[in-house]
Amino acid sequence: MKQALTQTNSYDYHLPDELIAKAPTMPKEEARLLVYRRENGSIEHFKFKDLPDLIPQNTAIIFNDTKVIKARLFGTKQSGGAREIMLNQPVGKNGTFSCYIKGRVKSGDIINLKNGINAEVLELFDDGLRVVRLIKNSKYLSTNEVLKATDKIGIIPLPPYLKRDADTDDESWYQSIFAKNKGAVAAPTASLHFSNDLMKKISDKFKTAYITLHVGAGTFKGVECEDIREHTMHHESYFIPESTANIIKSDTPILGVGTTVTRTIEYYARNGLKSGECDLFLNPLNPPIRQNFLLTNFHLPKSTLIMLVAGFVGLEQTKKIYATAIENGYRFYSYGDGMIVL
Length: 342
Description:
Layout: H1 2-6, E1 32-37, E2 42-47, H2 51-54, E3 60-64, E4 66-68, E5 72-77, E6 82-91, E7 96-102, E8 110-112, E9 117-124, E10 130-136, E11 139-140, H3 143-153, H4 170-173, E12 181-184, H5 196-205, E13 207-213, E14 236-239, H6 242-249, E15 254-257, H7 259-271, E16 275-278, E17 293-297, H8 304-313, H9 315-327, E18 338-341
Parallel strand pairs: 1-18, 3-13, 3-15, 4-12, 15-17
Antiparallel strand pairs: 1-2, 5-6, 5-8, 6-7, 7-10, 8-9, 9-10, 10-11, 13-14, 14-16, 17-18
Helix pairs in contact: 8-9
C-alpha cells in the first residue's frame, strides 16, 4: 500500500469534460457540497448554504484574504512577435517578478506592453520560469507600482483548463468577497462560494480569522515525476497575523477554507514562522498535524492538491469521494462545487 501512495498515477482519475465548471453557480451558496465524515466514512450531499449547520461547534474558520491580480499581460517584442506574460510572484522587493512567457525570449529582450510600459527579460530558468522587470519612462517600477499597473493593462488569469479568456464577469466571479491583499495569480477557489449573506451567518456563529497566501501559477503544475517523493514543490509567499497565529497555537478545532489555508497553517505548525515562502507538500506520507477540518473544491488528477486531500482522508477514501462526486454529477475545479472533510 505504501508503494501505491508514492506513485503519481495512483492519484489519477477520469473526469468527463461536461463536469468541468465553466462558470460559478449563482447564487454562490446554491453550489453543491459533498460532506465526508471520517468517523464512519459516510458521504452526504448538501449545499453551501447548509454549511453553518454542518461545522462542529467551537470551530475556528480560517480564510485566505489574498486578491487575484490581472496577471496576464500582452505585448510585442521590440524585435517583432507577439508575447504573453503570466506574472507569478515578486522576486525580492525591487519590482522584479518571476513569470511564464509564451514564445521564445532571451535575457535582455524587451517586450512592449500597454500604456508605455515595457518588460525587460532578466533571467531564464530550465523549469520554464523567467524573471522580468517592468519599466516606464526609463524608470523601473516598484512591486506596488507593478500591481497597480496590472489593473490597467492586464486581464484576470483564469485557469488553463477553462480554455477561454476572462471577461468582465470573471473580475468578480474569480475573486472572493473578502479579497484584500493583492498578489495572487490564481484564486483560493473554496472561498469563491461565500456570499455576504453566508459570511454573516458564519461569522455570527463561529470565530473567523484570515491568513494571506499569494497563490502562484505553480498551483496548476501537475506532478510529473513517477514517485511523488521526488516532486519539487513551488514556493508561495504568505503572512499570518498574530491573532490567527494564536488560534493555530491553541487547541481550538480549525476548519481551513481551501488548500492554500491548509498549507499555510501546517507550515506554521511546523516552523513557527508567521511570514515567508511556503513550499509545504502535504500528502499521505506527510499528513496534516494541526488542522482538523478541510473545505475545498475538487482538484485536477495527479495534482498536489488532490494529494493534500488524500493526506486528510487517505488515498482509497479520496478515490471513493471523487468517484461518488462524478457519479452524482458534481461540477469540478475552480468554478465548481465543493466538499468538506469533517
